[in-house]
Design a protein that fits this description.
heterodimer, A: 130 residues, alpha/beta, Rossmann fold, 4-stranded parallel sheet, 6 helices, 52% helix, B: 203 residues, mainly alpha, Serine Threonine Protein Phosphatase 5, Tetratricopeptide repeat, 71% helix
């Protein structure tokens, strides 16, 4: 298990989530844990709290996990997933206000250098300021 | 609450959402991503399949479990929003609530939904039905179980001219005007079903 911040990608589409994860992984290889959740429980377009919790656990690092989301429901369901996690982990999971693909690549790249969670989040969010 | 009443209440809410699923989807197709009816039906079908167990639990546990089912099964933003509504009601309602206690609990639940959705009244959402319903409940008086569905229905209609600020409908900007908000409609049918079940139980 790496001690770099982990990255989770949450999209309404499994293909978008998987593709964004592939792009991030191309930058950082195995130096950062990257996991994704996409689609509802039936495999359609949507987001699913259970699969978001599972992705956070897969990407888990004691340094924390940064989540990238696409649209509203992905953010709301990710917030719900964080609240449903065990208490000592909740504070170490953040949702980045950043575009999902670019944000994932930027966040993963920042994480691969060993930056802390706040720095990873801030780097992804710089994209919103441009 | 008596198990029979609780059973009727939960079954009525689930059944009405399932019955209105196509209508909710049609409303959502007009101004959103068209999944509200499908998502809500998925959630409330799961609730309905658990209704016998939920009916036998203390009110607090039943509402908490109902909320959790919606969060886990709905698969859209409405899951956490309705889940938060029911879970906050679970925490705030005493076992045998008076009208005043119900109004106070609903007020807290609305505040929680508002925080979850980062929304305000007047933004063409479920809040635009829940808030007027809570206000009438808080004023009390006679015949509430007959009046509240009318208040909810009228409030849902009042979302038609509103301009969406939150959710997918906000992407349409001014084009969201002229359509009823699907979340307002699902809240209105839930209020109507709950009142009708409770009215049946009181007779």
């Amino acid at each position: 298990m790496t001690q770099n911040v982990g990255i989770v990608i949450v999209s309404h589409s499994l293909k978008v989530a998987e593709g964004a994860a592939d792009m991030a992984r191309q930058m950082v290889g195995n130096s950062v844990s990257i996991a994704y959740a996409g689609g509802n429980a039936e495999g359609g377009i949507g987001t699913d709290v259970a699969s978001i919790i599972a992705a956070i656990e897969t990407a888990w690092s004691d340094a924390g996990v940064a989540i990238l989301v696409d649209l509203g429901g992905a953010e709301t369901n990710s917030e719900m997933a964080i609240e449903m996690m065990q208490e000592d982990r909740r504070d170490r999971v953040v949702i980045c206000n950043a575009p999902i693909v670019e944000g994932a690549v930027m966040a993963a790249t920042e994480a691969s250098g060993g930056s802390n969670l706040a720095k990873v989040k801030a780097t992804a969010e710089e994209l919103m300021a441009q | 609450m008596r198990p029979a009443t609780q059973h009727a209440l939960i079954a009525a809410m689930a059944t009405t959402i399932i019955a209105h699923a196509d209508e909710l989807t049609a409303l959502d197709q007009a101004i959103g991503d068209g999944d509200h009816g499908l998502n809500m039906r998925r959630g409330f079908e799961a609730v309905l399949s658990d209704v016998d167990a939920l009916a036998g639990q203390p009110l607090r546990d039943a509402l908490m479990n109902l909320g959790t089912i919606l969060i886990m099964k709905v698969g859209g933003a409405s899951g956490p929003l309705y889940g938060t509504l029911f879970m906050t009601l679970a925490k705030e309602l005493p076992a045998e609530p008076t009208v005043t206690e119900a109004a106070t609990a609903l007020d807290k639940a609305i505040t929680a939904v508002q925080a979850r959705g980062k929304s305000e009244p007047g933004q063409k959402t479920m809040l635009d039905v829940l808030i007027p319903v809570q206000q009438v409940l808080a004023r009390g008086g006679s015949d509430l179980l007959r009046r509240l569905p009318l208040v909810a229905e009228e409030a849902a209609q009042a979302t038609v001219p509103m301009h969406a600020i939150r959710g997918r409908a906000s992407f349409l900007g001014a084009r969201s005007v002229g359509h009823m908000d699907p979340g307002a409609r699902s809240s209105a049918v839930l209020v109507a079903a709950a009142c009708s079940a409770l009215e049946g139980a009181c007779l």
